């Protein structure tokens, strides 16, 4: 994989560390907002003006809105379910932030969902849903329709220690389907846990040109660094062709519009022009017979409004960029090769319909590519070209504010990591070498690296 | 006096004017900050008193649910709203009302709410917490607190709008508000679980009073509380908070979330007080609240406001600000009620044009508030 070393302005500081490049604290370029409160992820791109800003508020209201059972007095907002994970987008992306696995004994997974599939591929190379339970487990349902079932969680401790002897314990989660309403699922059923990611900067990620990702991809590891980033090629429903996947934990969605329409259908049970069929398999007759909230339930204009909203959510600025410890962490992040996959800097392309997102210098810390992360993190469930051991590098911008916004520090695809530190320690496969370097750092250096991550 | 609205200022920077004085000179700014704390207390005191009157009316109603007593409770609710609406000018800067950890705002005035989360709706006769006799056998204050905003920002179980929904019911009328019969609260009447509905209404009202009292306690003069800290703040920081509250309410909240969204969606459910059709009064109260702070006024009480600070550095800007604050109020007043009907119809319908004009007036006023901040040497980051 090629790395471009950008020319950095060398700033002298007491610690002798290289300073940040100019504008590096503005993670989202001109869209960046300065807010460190609970609302840090909820704000409109700073450069969004006038009627376009109004449109953001409209999308925001839809994002927060509870969908209700059809038929109802609010015709524009009915058609919930029949089975679903949550009644609104905001239920899982609370404050536009990050979901988490259950942390209380009786808590049911809300912002953690489970994709289901059986061996084989559909006509477009995507996963095949279970004949009875479909492509996703829906643990909630409207009155008179059975919910599909639930997931029981258990944990096993995994002991480990740092190079300096400091011990740590990770928590490995296990998931079991329980209370299944329609009998057993396919014997070779594959399940993949997915926690709701934060919503910031998605429009900017969409504005990174395909060519930039292609330049970063190194599927055969030609440069011999042990890291092979791969693009996931997925089916674009709207255009009826294969496109570059960018969104989702396995980069299985080509665009925000499709991601959103997919979530409306899969998570809330709301059909749209892109996905006109309810998530009711032939085995679930009651589900199929439940009243519909319209054909489709989500008017095209509303999908447009929500999609605009998801594109225009701002990225909060970094904090403490000049702090010596943060600068030291910044250097270590690069020295440990974290930045090989968590690529810091891009310039977005030009989008005719979104000048706010065009030609922006941004710092998302991702390559949006698939990487083999080793057996410990594997879900063993392929998704288009992504294998059961591959995950898309998630962006890191905003992670230092997750605790403020969402009152938790659960990270990774299923929220198993209870801190940023644990998230690093779970890295395996292509990231094993970087993890080992981290494990063998001094306590001071480990703290500095974490301090850098918290500044993002 | 030199005008320097053009200067790019950084919060915290010392600004010198041609006359060698600062726009926020301590001697002039301190009385304004102190007056602000006093008017906040006056406003919350009013809100508490009106909520207590509502509490009395609700207690009378649940003891003997008649149509006349329901009407009295509804009137008490309507009478309680303007004081709270004006107080929303004190939000958005992490003060007592919406402090990140302790602020009860989400329990007091959250909207829009999903009716079916609380009680039966047309087509779902057994919906809601009130009818969930198995899941929530015992209704109490702790339960309502825990259920508010659980699993989603529109799962609202408490506050003014939950009470409003219980008093009025769903609004499906094109000419007036909801019209829930009093018999929904009578055992063996028009809806199951009447006793639980009475309990719920009383619990929600009691909690509202309690929450408002807790906010007011933070502004009571002479106590060791937020007001004391606020008055002791650096003048610049205090004025920054004051302007952040006004500007956020004026822009993102009032013209954006509360008006533009309804205007764009033409959706009856997307208006602030949709069950009682009193949204216009809410909008008006918000705009009055912003004007109050600028003038240092609440009700009949008047004192040193931001206007006096602005007049010192830029009399023309002060005049413009006052005119625009009034213009917004006039524009809101010109919207033909009820709001949920004004937003319907063609783009050139009188109602829609009047709503649009009010939105524009509020946007203009928000921009001027940013200029006011700049004139006072403060950079106002309105997101």
Strand order of the largest sheet of chain A: 1-3
Q: What would the principal axes of the Cα set say about the shape of chain B?
A: globular
Distance between the termini of chain B: 31 Å
Helix and strand pattern of chain B: HHHHHHHHHHEEHHHH
Gyration radius from CA atoms of chain B, angstroms: 22 Å
Throw out a few tags for this protein.
heterodimer, A: alpha+beta, two-stranded antiparallel sheet, two-stranded antiparallel ribbon, 13 helices, 12 strands, 24% helix, B: mainly alpha, A middle domain of Talin 1
Task: Give an overview of the whole structure.
The complex is a heterodimer of chains A (456) and B (383). By secondary structure, chain A is of the alpha+beta class. Helix content of chain A is 24%, strand content 13%. Chain A contains 13 helices and twelve strands. In chain A, the strands form six sheets. Chain A has a two-stranded antiparallel sheet. In chain A, strands 2-6 form a two-stranded antiparallel sheet. In chain A, a hairpin with a 4-residue loop joins β7 (233-236) and β8 (241-244). Chain A starts with 49 loop residues before the first helix and ends with a helix. The relative contact order of chain A is 0.19. Residues 1-14 of chain A have low confidence and may be disordered. Chain B has a two-stranded antiparallel sheet with strand order 1-2. The two termini of chain B are 31 Å apart. Chain B is globular, with a radius of gyration of 22 Å. Chain B has 14 helices and two strands, in the order ααααααααααββαααα. The longest helix of chain B has 38 residues, at 26-63. In chain B, α2 packs parallel to α10. Helices cover 57% and strands 1% of the residues of chain B. Chain B has one domain (26-375): M75 peptidase, HXXE motif (A middle domain of Talin 1), CATH 1.20.1420.20. Chain B is mainly alpha-helical and 383 residues long.
